[in-house]
Amino acid sequence: MSEYILCFILFCIGLYCVLRKRNIIKIIIGLGIIEYAVNLFFVLIGYRWHGRSPILAKDQVILNMVDPLPQALVLTSIVIGLAVTALIVTIAIRIYEKYGTFDITKIRRLKG
Amino acid sequence: MILPFFTIIPLLAAFLIAFLGKKIKGLGDFLSSLGTLSLLVLSVYSISEVLAHKIIIYKVGGWMPPIGISMVLDGLTSFMLVMVNLVSFLVAIYSINYMERYTDKYRFYTLFMLMLAGMNGIIITGDLFNLFVFLEIASIASYALVAYGTEAEELEAAFKYAIMGSIASSFVLLGIALLYSYTSTLNMADIARVLSIKHSSYVVPFVGVLFLMGFGLKAALVPFHAWLPDAHPSAPASISAMLSGVLIKVLGVYALLRIFFNVIGINNGILSVLMFLGIISMLIGVILALAQWDFKRLLAYHSISQIGYVILGIGLGTPLGILAGLFHLFNHSIFKSLLFLNSGALDYSLGTRDLKDMGGLKEKMPVSANTNLIASMSIAGIPPFNGFWSKLLIILACIESGKIIYAIFAVIASILTLASFMKVQKYAFLGKLKEKWLNVKEVPRAMQISMVALAIICLVGGLLVMPLFKPFLQSAADALLSGNGYKDAVFNALRQVN
Fold first, then answer.
1. Is pLDDT at A62 greater than 80 in this prediction?
2. Angle (nearest 5°) at CA B480 between B322 and B283
3. In 3D, which of B301, B300, B332, B337 has the Cα closest to residue B447?
4. Is the CB of B156 less than 8 angstroms away from the CB of A87?
5. Are residues B163 and A18, on separate chains, in Cβ contact within 8 Å?
6. Which residue among A45, A76, A95 sits closest to B133, beta carbon to beta carbon?
7. What is the CA radius of gyration of chain A?
8. What is the C-alpha to C-alpha distance for residues B248 and B260, in angstroms, rounded to an integer?
9. What 3-state class would DSSP assign to B495?
10. What is the value of ipTM here, to two decimals?
């Protein structure tokens, strides 16, 4: 149970980072932390105590194996996270070119 | 089997345009128009399939669900598919001329087709994780499209949108992870089956809250709406039309409804939360819209308000309410995309979106002005245009279920909408022509065609509730109304195949 709570705390740290930090690079890092927390949680769901990897061989009987499905899903989700992070970092670089700052409080031409 | 083509066609078009678009000029125009046209034909054909078979299931790779991924075609699916592909076809035609203003047009078409693939995927999938993947495809393409102009404001809006959208996706993924740990399956029908067997637990309401946050943010319901008024006006006009017209509905409203009604099960608590969110979105959106002078920003706030109507109608949970909500969903996608295309036409000819700067453009741009008049009357709910019928049905449904207060709020929001669009008409198209606009010309032919086509649909859209066309709408409402019956329908169809 404690590992789930730690996951949740990690998620909250990421959320805090996104909400409170002023530097947009730190916000992106916060987003990364949120993604890691969710991925970690997903992997932990499929984990079993002393479980083995679920590889079927001919003369082997595996009694206690971990659930492989969350691992496959998390792999997909990591790739998606990579794409999002790459895109947001690109946008951040272009923002720096236009505004000359990473401070989110100074990047506010849109209002209303 | 038509189902897989809804994702294959746009993905293939995106791939070809990305590789060959730079070398062959006009390939993007041609392939995107052809692709969206064929999707439109397929989705119209799917209506007859649904009427004949009720529900059709495609097993991806031949694997049997719930182990394999399935695609499901039912009434709601074909309804949404028609809406999405109709709007995207007209927008693709519009973009041929409109996107000349930007460099690297083929990249625009690549992202456009990717976004379409994501949206179609969300609609047809029957698997929860698959839904998440398509959600991300559509979202990432839309972040990039909002930043397409790479001006300072566009980048700022895209950054905001991308951060908020990614957090929403994380909430959705967390919800899926919890639901998987509880039910040990990812197939939507199978989740519904397991949940109906298991005893109720605190996990399901918690997952519900996570989904409400995630999809509510994508749908821009009011506490989660802050990104929309920045993101939608910043995109190129044809993309604003797609974002406001269909993206928020598919990513937000459709996913929310499908999961709440058919998978984790609806109850009175969730329905009253939906109604409450609908009411505040409706009122706050329209009040904020009143003060805007930027034409596209004004339209963006109206999107929030109109989505409020949809959620209110469906949140009533009665057959009439759900029918009215879905009807308004369809109508809003038509008139809101028309309004955004009008704003794009003004931007194309004048180079400004500021309403104070315009005036008397009716004589110079008659097609834009008249189609805009029709769309404004539609959104404000003036008979005989489609917006009137769906708003009337929503208000009647409120009264029918005894929620008089909500009906009054809906009327007030409608009046405020009318006031706000009278402002648009007065400042942009009526009044005296300013001197600097003496040489303004009407927009090119392709843009006119798609605007006129949308205006005609606005005019005849009200016919959808007439007996001849009603099965189309009714089968969509029935899919939601059946609730837990979704799983039985899916499993019965699977049994028949074997």
1. no
2. 35
3. B337
4. no
5. yes
6. A76
7. 20
8. 17
9. helix
10. 0.94
**CA angle, residues B349, B350, B354, in degrees to nearest 5:** 135
| CB atoms B173 and A69 under 8 Å | no
Residue of A15, A88, A108 with shortest CB distance to B162: A88
Question: What would the pLDDT profile of A87-98 be if each residue is shown by its tens digit?
Answer: 999 999 999 999
Give the burial class of A30: count Cβ atoms within 10 A of its Cβ; 0-12 exposed, 13-18 middle, 19 or more buried: buried
Q: What is each CA distance from B46 to A42, B5, B42, B363, B457, in whole angstroms?
A: 36, 12, 6, 42, 20
Q: Which of A73, A91, A109 sits opposite B129 (nearest CB)?
A: A73
What integer best gives the mean pLDDT of chain A?
Answer: 89
What confidence tens digit (pLDDT) does each residue in B37-79 have? 999 999 999 999 898 888 999 998 888 888 889 999 999 999 9
CA distance B445 to A61: 70
Looking at residues B275-281, what average pLDDT do you find? 93
Let me know how many helices (H) and strands (E) chain A has, helices first. Answer: 3, 0
Q: Which of A84, A99, A112 is opposite residue B292, by nearest beta carbon?
A: A112
Min Cα distance B190 → chain A (Å) is 16
- Residue of A69, A64, A76, A65 lying closest to A43 (CA atoms): A69
Question: What residues does B354 pair with on adjacent strands?
Answer: B294
Q: Does B140 touch chain A (CB under 8 A)?
A: yes
Rounded Cα–Cα distance for residues B156 and B153 (Å): 5
User: Which residues of chain A lie closer than 8 angstroms to B180, CB-CB?
Assistant: 42, 45, 69-70
pLDDT tier for residue B498 given thresholds of 50, 70 and 90 = low
Distance CA B166, CA B289 (A): 26
Interface of B with A in 232-291 (CB under 8 A): 234, 291
Average confidence (pLDDT) over B248-252: 93
Instruction: Calculate the alpha carbon distances from B439 to A90, B16, B353, B436 in Å.
Output: 40, 40, 17, 7
Mean pLDDT along residues B482-495: 88
State whether the Cα torsion B319-B321-B324-B329 is positive or negative.
negative
Quick one: which of B109, B118, B406, B159 has its CA closest to B275? Answer: B406
B162 touches chain A (CB under 8 A): yes
Q: Which residue of A has its CA nearest to B301?
A: A112
Q: How many CB pairs under 8 A join A and B?
A: 90
| Neighbouring-strand partners of residue B70 | B59
Look at residue A49 and tell me whether its pLDDT is greater than 90. no
Which residues in chain B have Cβ-Cβ distances shorter than 8 Å to A32? none
How many whole angstroms from its chain centre is CA B102?
Answer: 25
- Quickly list DSSP for B385-435: SHHHHHHHHHHHHHHHTT-HHHHHHHHHHHHHHHHHHHHHIIIIISSPPPG
Mean pLDDT throughout B412-436? 89
* Stronger pLDDT, B465 or B18, i.e. the higher one: B18
